[in-house]
Amino acid sequence: MKNDMRVTLPLWQMGAIVLMMIVTVAINFATKTATFTDDGFEFEVSVQGSVGVVLGIAIIIFTIYLAFFLARIAKHNKQFPDRKISTFTFKPQEYIEDDELFEEITKQATKKVYTYYTWTLPLLVGASLGGFWSRTTILFGILLLAMGQYWIYYRTMRKFLVQEEEEE
User: Fold this and answer.
1) What's the rounded mean pLDDT across residues 58-74?
2) What angle do CA 65, 28, 55 make, to 5 degrees?
3) Distance from C-alpha of 2 to C-alpha of 68, rounded to nearest angstrom
4) Residue 148, CB half-sphere, CA atoms under 13 Å: how many?
């Protein structure tokens, strides 16, 4: 299973999430929202100074990262035509059902992720309701949750694959 991108896909997704976190924080510092008494609001984006530079660089890096990611998927699909990764599908790419081993590994990993969300989502909602956090902080929290999901999945897959390689 070496060189199979389906195993390292969560790492790629975590990298994209880190870049999205940087963009989210930069947008937070580069924007200003004003609310008026007549139920209107104004949204202003100011990309001046160092915040504008950070936002611009982050968007450029994110775009380059996305291009490398899509190119890597295309390379994987050429190398493994029977194990293609579809970039636009509702079925998560983490479901690897090639054989009974991968079905079992996927089952274990998704059970752990489900348990993770069962505990962390209510905690995030409770903290956001009780803490009166900003939208950016809540978005950052959601991105952290997603990062945790991919980390749990990758760690579980990796553990099983290392055990399988040692047995061979």
Assistant:
1) 93
2) 40
3) 19
4) 16
pTM above 0.90, yes or no: no
Contacts of 41 (CB under 8 A, 6+ apart): 33, 34, 35
Helices (H) and strands (E) in the chain, counts: 4, 2
Least confident span in 71-80, 93-102, 115-124, 146-155: 93-102
- Residues 19 and 131: their CA atoms lie apart, in Å, by 26
Q: Is 34 helix (H, G, I), strand (E, B) or coil?
A: strand
d(CA 81, CA 76): 8
Q: What is the pLDDT of residues 19-48, one digit of tens each?
A: 999 988 888 887 766 666 666 666 666 677
In the chain, domain spans = 5-86+94-167
Report DSSP state, residue 41. E
- Count, residues in the chain: 168
> How many Cβ atoms sit within 10 Å of the Cβ of residue 6?
19
Tokens 């450029």 label which residue?
60
